[in-house]
């Protein structure tokens, strides 16, 4: 164990810090879910990041990355959140689909999708859930019917983040007549294709952060299938591993939030409920514990290790810490907690509320831990 | 940056675990209790043969020359198997204190009366005691102290009030109590982590076997979720503990903070896991017959030893409120930009 950054890692930190100081927009961008304008402003930012060579540092250079390891990805993320840079509008693409493409994609698919993804030219939405397939994802009904060199996609997808404005989506479809985990394929499709109808879904605060997608005989080439036909479940679980496990919620996000919580606590000390101090300290500790855990995972992966069911422990931990952290902030704000202009705490809370639900509800994660880590019977 | 144990460290953890596993079975612990013995002589011989008491002593003083990370691994195993003998305080606290003071480490164990612990553990079996007179450190032969036992709920904890008189001749070099506290807290945290995992493992084994409603109770989500929640606490205490040990070994100024963090996280994990274990075992969890109570009692004891949660939280608070925080400081301050570029 050596918990010191090498000179090269420190130089990398200095380099990205310098670039961000020069380029991060002085004023925060309008959020990417409420309006097309906000969405496009984030696309412009993605292009700027890519032009600087910072789109996705872990990807091979041939696909628009820098071929760097996961420790450098963590350093990048630390500096990124530290600088208050815009949220990544393409997170479904770069953090979830991207690593899956690198693992399962053909050379042709990688060349076709990754550079455009890294450049912000194609922004991705996820199309997994259906009205009757949420936690029980193997219950998806949407179909992919083979027609020569194409698939015809039909069905009803829901809770697709970013799909209101995104360019492409990746979805789980089954061969007609197949059941459960068998016969599923992961297929990529453009959201402006003929037969795709998109209806926004409003979050509980009214923002249209999701969409439902009705697909009616949407024709896509078979070359849009990622992984083998009928092997979609395994491919998706790999995406889910990255989603829960590593990239979706980088630790820096929570460490920055915890540092802000400490500032809020210091600014409003005096007259607070005396139990709040311990919660603030807990939030700081939990954010750091999450970071330490991810450094351990990253070190293991760099050395050739795999990502396993322990990713479920990550998902539970970050989602619960995020919720606790924001609830603590609201309890410091007291009567002002309900006001919508108090520096983003309320927005953060609303966002954190969804954490224990998306990417596999925490109850499902607990089942996975119990069955696959602890070996309890199903 | 490499947050992985070395192969040698993994092997050490495995070897030590095997030694304890063979001899710390529930039946063996009960036999020890029936004999009213402080420890098992054969096991202690094995521990000495493996060089564990002098693990942290330098090689030229007959030790293994290993560091805090290795000692943490030994302490995790000691916690997991609810080791009755005073290996961890001797090897992890007393030996480094003696080494720092330039005192040769002799045969037998040395008990530690840290100012933060009112009672001294295993004072009756020690050949000497490290005791505090203010900031001064004294090494006092066992025959020069009077000890009075206080019963702990943990039948293997031997706690004593110690009466003694400081003399110039017993004083040793150094004012080492802060470092001793860090060592004590770190290795207690390690034991707590081991205890937490043991509580979960005992529960998994039991709930796979125990049938109700025609099924193993471990197939019920309500039971699974208790144990999964405990495992999450363990998973996020472990990296804090390992980081604390590595930072201590590296001489990082952040080590003390991570040690307090590790103590709090491991105490929490042990509390959640041992209570889940009692619940998962049902009435058996409340009985003398199954081993859960050994784990529960040790966790209860160690959670308050070497600095209460309140003490460690106040150390965290002083850091959090006074130091600059941020995602770039997980392992301490980073080099400024110019210096980093120049060095590279």
Please, could you describe this protein's structure?
The complex is a heterodimer of chains A (378) and B (344). Chain A is α+β, with helices and mostly antiparallel strands. Helices cover 46% and strands 15% of the residues of chain A. Chain A contains eleven helices and eight strands. In chain A, a hairpin with a 2-residue loop joins strand 2 (143-147) and strand 3 (150-161). Chain A is globular and about 70 Å long. The two termini of chain B are 15 Å apart. The radius of gyration of chain B is 21 Å and the shape is globular. Chain B has a domain at 177-329: Up-down Bundle (Butyryl-CoA Dehydrogenase, subunit A, domain 3), CATH 1.20.140. Chain B has 344 residues and is of the alpha+beta class. In chain B, helix 6 (177-209) runs parallel beside helix 8, helix 6 packs antiparallel against helix 9 (292-304) and helix 7 (221-250) packs antiparallel against helix 8. The interface between A and B is large, with 67 and 59 residues.
Brief characterization of the structure:
The complex is a heterodimer of chains A (378) and B (344). Chain A is of the alpha+beta class. Chain A contains 11 helices and 8 strands.
Radius of gyration of chain A, Cα only, in angstroms?
A: 21 Å
Number-wise, the strands of chain A total 8
| Subunit arrangement of the protein | heterodimer
**CATH class descriptor of one domain in chain B:** Mainly Alpha
**Largest interface (C-beta under 8 Å):** A-B, 67 and 59 residues
Q: What would the CATH topology of the largest domain in chain A be? A: Butyryl-CoA Dehydrogenase, subunit A, domain 3
Output the number of helix runs of chain B.
11
Characterize the overall form of chain B: globular
- Which stretches of chain B are poorly predicted, pLDDT < 50 over at least 5 residues? none
Low-confidence stretches of chain A: none
CATH class of the largest domain in chain A: Mainly Alpha
Distance between the termini of chain B: 15 Å
- Percent of residues of chain A in helical segments? 40-55%
Strand order of the largest sheet of chain A: 1-4-5-8
**Rounded Rg of chain B:** 21 Å
Order of helices and strands of chain A: HHHHHEEEEEEEEHHHHHH
**Given the helix and strand composition of chain B, which structural class is it?**
alpha+beta
């Amino acid at each position: 164990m050596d918990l010191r950054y090498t000179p090269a890692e420190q130089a990398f930190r200095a380099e990205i810090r310098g670039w961000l100081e020069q380029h991060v927009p002085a004023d925060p961008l309008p959020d990417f879910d409420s309006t097309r304008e906000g969405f496009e402003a984030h696309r412009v930012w993605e292009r700027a990041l890519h032009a600087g060579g910072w789109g996705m540092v872990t990807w091979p250079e041939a696909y628009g990355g820098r071929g760097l390891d996961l420790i450098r990805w963590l350093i990048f993320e630390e500096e990124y959140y530290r600088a208050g840079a815009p949220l990544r509008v393409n997170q479904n693409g770069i953090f979830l689909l991207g690593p899956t493409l690198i693992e399962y994609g053909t050379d042709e698919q990688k060349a076709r999708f990754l550079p455009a993804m890294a450049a912000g030219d194609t922004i991705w939405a996820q199309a997994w859930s259906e009205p009757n397939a949420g936690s029980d994802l193997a219950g998806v009904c949407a179909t992919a019917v083979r027609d020569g060199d194409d698939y015809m996609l039909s069905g009803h997808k829901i809770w697709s983040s970013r799909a209101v404005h995104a360019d492409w989506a990746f979805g789980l479809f089954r061969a007609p007549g197949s059941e459960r985990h068998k016969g599923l394929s992961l297929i990529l499709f453009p959201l402006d294709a003929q037969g795709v109808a998109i209806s926004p879904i409003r979050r509980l605060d009214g923002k249209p952060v999701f969409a439902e997608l009705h697909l009616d005989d949407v024709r896509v080439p078979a070359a849009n299938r990622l992984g083998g036909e009928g092997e979609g479940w395994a491919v998706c679980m790999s995406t889910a591993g990255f989603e829960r496990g590593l990239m979706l919620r980088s630790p820096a996000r929570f460490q920055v939030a915890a540092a802000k919580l400490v500032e809020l606590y210091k600014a409003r000390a005096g007259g607070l409920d005396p139990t709040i101090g311990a919660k603030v300290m807990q939030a700081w500790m939990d954010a750091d514990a999450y970071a330490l855990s991810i450094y351990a995972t990253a070190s293991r992966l760099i050395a050739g290790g795999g990502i396993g069911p322990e990713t479920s422990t990550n998902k539970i931990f970050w989602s619960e810490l995020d919720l606790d952290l924001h609830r603590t902030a609201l309890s410091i704000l007291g009567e002002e907690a309900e006001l919508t202009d108090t520096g983003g705490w309320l927005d953060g809370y609303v966002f954190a509320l969804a954490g224990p639900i998306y990417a596999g509800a925490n109850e499902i994660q607990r089942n996975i831990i119990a069955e696959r880590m602890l070996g309890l019977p199903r | 940056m490499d947050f992985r144990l070395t192969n040698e460290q993994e092997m050490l953890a495995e070897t030590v675990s095997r030694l304890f596993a063979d001899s710390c079975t529930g039946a063996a612990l009960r036999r020890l209790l029936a004999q009213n013995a402080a420890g098992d002589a054969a096991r202690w011989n094995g521990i000495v043969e493996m060089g564990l008491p002098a693990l942290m002593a330098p090689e030229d003083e007959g030790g293994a020359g290993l560091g805090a990370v290795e000692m943490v691994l030994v302490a995790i195993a000691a916690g997991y198997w609810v080791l009755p003998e005073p290996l961890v305080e001797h090897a992890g606290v007393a030996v480094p204190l003696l080494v720092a003071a330039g005192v040769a480490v002799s045969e037998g164990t040395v008990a530690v009366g840290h100012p933060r612990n009112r009672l001294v553990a295993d004072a009756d079996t020690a050949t000497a005691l490290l005791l505090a007179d203010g900031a001064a450190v004294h090494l006092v032969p066992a025959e020069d102290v009077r000890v009075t036992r206080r019963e702990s709920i943990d039948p293997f904890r031997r706690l004593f009030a110690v009466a003694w008189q400081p003399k110039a001749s017993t004083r040793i070099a150094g004012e080492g109590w802060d470092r001793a506290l860090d060592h004590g807290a770190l290795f207690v945290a390690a034991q707590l982590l081991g205890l937490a995992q043991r509580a979960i493992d005992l529960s998994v084994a039991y709930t796979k076997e125990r049938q109700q409603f025609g099924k193993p109770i471990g197939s019920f989500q309500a039971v699974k979720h208790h144990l999964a929640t405990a495992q999450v606490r363990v998973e996020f205490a472990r990296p804090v503990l390992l980081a604390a040990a590595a930072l201590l070994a590296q001489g990082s100024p952040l080590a003390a903070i991570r040690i307090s963090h590790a103590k709090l996280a491991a105490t929490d994990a042990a509390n959640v896991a041992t209570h889940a274990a009692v619940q998962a075992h049902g009435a058996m969890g409340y009985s003398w017959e199954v081993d859960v109570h050994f784990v529960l009692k040790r966790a209860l004891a160690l959670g308050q030893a070497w600095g209460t949660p309140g003490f460690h939280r106040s150390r965290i608070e002083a850091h959090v409120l006074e130091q600059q925080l941020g995602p770039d400081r997980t392992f301490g301050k980073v080099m400024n930009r110019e210096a980093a570029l120049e060095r590279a």
